[in-house]
Specification:
Keywords: Membrane, Transmembrane, Transmembrane helix. The chain crosses the membrane at residues 6-23. This protein is an all-alpha fold. The chain has helices at 2-21, 29-45. The chain starts with a helix and ends with a helix.
Length: 49
């Protein structure tokens, strides 16, 4: 029973860490990757042959 409780609590901690680090709305990694990708696409499109 104790092993199951520890496992469930660890899963909850992992889910909370994911939502705060990766999926945070304005400061998360997903937002940063999207912003940098858009900037890179804009720079590549603006290159002159």
């Amino acid at each position: 029973m104790r092993n199951i409780l520890v496992t469930v609590m660890m899963l909850i901690v992992v889910a909370l860490l994911f939502t705060t680090i990766i999926n945070d709305g304005s400061t998360g990694m997903r937002k940063n990757i999207g912003t940098h990708g858009t900037t890179a696409n804009t720079n590549i499109t603006a290159l002159q042959p």
